[in-house]
């Protein structure tokens, strides 16, 4: 995500070598979703580069590989899982949580499978689970069942708040793509651990994105006052201005909790070259 094409030359210096792009992103935000690991497990040398470009307190929320969660449904993919855990080891303390995103087909009937899977995972990591089956959000018994499974392993439930996206029909290609692909579930804002994680999806229009995150400001501020350490990821359909919006969200929370540390100062863009003239 830190190599997003729409950020190059606008928010991040253009033409950076691959081994410098994350460093530039980390001057804007102090956490990142490791979504690419869902599609392919990186080499240890690649992960070593990620660690070298970030401070020890930078947060990676790294998604488990697709074969583990979506193809084998948490069963019988031990070799893939071992390779993944070995690959991310160089992150050390930067591996804030391992993100177990489950498909919409994963229902309350599968809670036992999740419990057994979490029980087998090494205790050296923190885990966060994202579910998309509507029963977990609409049926109180199903929600409590999942909470018990997660609490037994001190794992977090990751809400993906898409409510503002589905308030009105999409108005652009990017919004239409999000409308077709993103889960349509109710907002959930109950933290289970000291390290809640929130994923929020806004709209193309900045004012609609900002209005949609208003309920989260008080929630996140209260978590901070309680001594929790939340991580919030701000998305829009095309993510063109996601780092700017993330910083605005952080500033609005900080207005409510003044002792919250500021984000780093963004890496400056190089001055444009002076145009050539004949005189």
CATH homologous superfamily? Protein of unknown function UPF0759
Backbone shape: globular
Output the CATH class name: Alpha Beta
CATH topology: TIM Barrel
Q: Looking across the biggest beta sheet, what order are the strands in?
A: 1-2-3-4-5
> Runs with pLDDT <50, length 5+?
none
* DSSP, total strands: 8
Computed structural class: alpha/beta
The total domain count is: 1
Known CATH architecture: Alpha-Beta Barrel
Count up the helices.
10
User: Over all CA atoms, what is the radius of gyration?
Assistant: 20 Å
- The arrangement of helices and strands along the chain is HEHEHHEHEHHEEHEHEH
Alpha carbon gap, first and last residue: 44 Å
Oligomer: single chain
| Mean pLDDT rating | 95
* Fraction of residues in β-strands: 5-15%
Q: Percent helix among the residues?
A: 25-40%
Structure description:
- By secondary structure, the protein is of the alpha/beta class.
- It has one domain: Alpha-Beta Barrel (TIM Barrel).
- The chain is built from ten helices and eight strands.
- The chain has helices at residues 18-25, 44-52, 66-71, 78-88, 111-120, 135-138, 140-151, 173-181, 206-225, 242-256; strands spanning 31-34, 59-63, 95-101, 127-130, 156-157, 160-161, 197-201, 231-235.
- The strands form two sheets. The chain has a five-stranded parallel beta sheet with strand order 1-2-3-4-5, with helices on one face. A three-stranded parallel beta sheet has the order 6-7-8.
- Helix 5 (111-120) runs parallel beside helix 7 and helix 9 crosses helix 10.
- It starts with 17 loop residues before the first helix and ends in a 23-residue tail after the last helix.
């Amino acid at each position: 995500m830190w190599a997003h094409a729409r950020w190059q030359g606008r928010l991040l210096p253009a033409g950076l070598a691959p081994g410098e792009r994350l460093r530039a992103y980390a001057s804007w935000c102090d956490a990142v979703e490791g979504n690419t690991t869902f599609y392919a497990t990186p080499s240890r040398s690649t992960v070593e580069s990620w660690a070298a470009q970030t401070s020890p307190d930078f947060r990676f929320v790294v998604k488990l590989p697709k074969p583990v969660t979506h193809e084998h449904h948490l069963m019988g993919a031990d070799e893939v899982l071992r390779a993944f855990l070995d690959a991310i080891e160089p992150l050390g303390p930067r591996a804030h949580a391992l993100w177990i995103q489950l498909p919409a087909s994963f229902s309350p009937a599968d809670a036992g499978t999740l419990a057994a899977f979490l029980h087998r995972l090494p205790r050296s990591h923190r885990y966060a689970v994202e579910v998309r089956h509507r029963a977990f959000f609409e049926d109180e018994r199903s929600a409590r069942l999942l909470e018990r499974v997660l609490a037994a392993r001190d794992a977090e439930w990751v809400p993906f708040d898409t409510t503002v996206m589905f308030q009105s029909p999409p108005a652009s290609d990017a919004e239409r793509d999000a409308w077709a692909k993103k889960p349509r579930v109710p907002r959930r804002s109950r933290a289970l651990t000291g390290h809640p994680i929130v994923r929020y999806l806004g709209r193309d229009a900045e004012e609609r994105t900002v209005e949609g995150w208003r309920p989260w400001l008080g929630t996140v501020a209260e978590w901070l006052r309680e001594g929790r350490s939340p991580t919030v990821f701000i998305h829009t359909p095309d993510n063109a201005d996601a780092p700017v919006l993330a910083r605005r969200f952080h500033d609005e929370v900080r207005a409510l909790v003044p002792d919250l540390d500021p984000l780093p100062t963004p890496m400056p863009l190089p001055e444009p070259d002076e145009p050539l003239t004949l005189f």
